[in-house]
Write a structure and sequence with these properties.
By secondary structure, the protein is α/β, with parallel strands linked by helices. The chain has a domain at about 85-100 and about 225-415: Rossmann fold. It has 19 helices and 16 strands. Helix 8 (about 165-175) links the parallel strand 7 and strand 8. Helix 3 crosses helix 4 (about 65-75), helix 6 packs across helix 7 and helix 9 (about 190-200) crosses helix 19. It binds pyridoxal-5'-phosphate (PLP). The site of pyridoxal-5'-phosphate has 16 residues, from helix 12.
Amino acid sequence: MRYVSTRGGAPVKRFSEILLEGLAPDGGLYVPESFPKVDLARFRGKSYPALAHAILSQFMDDIPGLEALVGRTYTKEIFGSDDVTPLKTLEPGLHLLGLSNGPTLAFKDIALQLLGNLFEKALEQKNQTLNILGATSGDTGSAAEYALRGKRNVNVFMLSPRGRMSAFQSAQMYSLQDANIHNLAVEGVFDDCQDMVKQVNADAAFKEKYRIGAVNSINWARVAAQVVYYFKGYFEATRANSQEVSFAVPSGNFGNIYAGFVARAMGLPVHKLILATNENDVLDEFFRSGRYRPRKAAVATSSPSMDISRASNFERYVYDLLEEDGAKVNKIFASGEEADLSLIPRAGFVSGRSTHAERIATIKSVHARYGVVIDPHTADGVKVGLEHREQGVPLVCMETALPAKFADTIREALGTAPARRAGFERLEELPQRFKVLKPEAEVVKRYIEAHAR
Ligand SMILES: *Cc1c(COP(=O)(O)O)cnc(C)c1O
């Protein structure tokens, strides 16, 4: 598989070359030159690891030992069941796909557990070390840390906005005692954290000297890992490969739903991809109007992992919409300004948005009707999914986090705290290890200089 940049100005590369790289040198994102077509009949009935290997080997065809690596990533020990992403049927034709049974109880584990193992292997082969610098508003940071903790050739420096995450989310990150994990609690908001990462990366000499890397959602390996569960969910929700299914996806950076787009391009019979946003509705606006209007800043909501002002993976989809015209993509995304794409058909997607009151109402009604507690992000997806549900088309709603992570919102909706999985009962009481930093790039650079390996 060969990879090209969405902005058309970077050399063609193999997967092993883009794995550790992040953005392409022209500022674009790497995408496969073409999407492989698959034979569904050969995929139905496979176990999760076997399915994952069948799909991932198409994208990662220059990674020796991929099958074993995938096999030790997608296990019952790490994801709680042999199914990895179990399908729960609420009523005939309405399902929840459980993507959040990994170590940090959010769907990002599915991609990051794989990425951690891929990084470790690649760095071992090159005899290199890497210092991952990231910013998190909650779920990405913990998923990255749990994927990379204890790995010998990687350090993680994770910036988080001090006091802005749920108590569970910060306890999950800050309680890690592994020496290679550095939690940096920034006296600011998420945007400050992200700006600091950008500024450090803009210092090319520093970046090279300290081998600064990233695990952000634009990494192609993360997209590829997420393609797998669309197939898995499809097979669980259907009897025959002639049946179409719709997926409702709570969206922020457009990574999850873009994987559904890739699955469809590979031949999965997807009827509609139903995109749900919260009050940060830049993507909903795009799919309704064709106008892309990135915002200055996100507003804080009760589905915080979807609080984004511009969606990083969206560029990959626009590259496809614009028929792989890198110059046009560059014009839109290099400027960061508004774009009007209303004349280009946006087939196969529908969208909607959800407010705090609607999340609460959805959590309540799903609980009353089906006896199932869903988290606020999943609730955004269910709310919008039901608005677009069609007779005779099974609807699979992506469960992107477990309710235990967002106890305050669940208490507001249901009057009681959500159940905790075994092992998480006293999480907030564990000793925490983090360093408070001022929101300045120089401060984080000094910290990295003192602690990088
Ligand atoms: C990251 C996240 C999302 C948004 O996913 P994207 O791939 O950024 O669109 C939704 N829900 C939860 C719980 C998340 O952690």
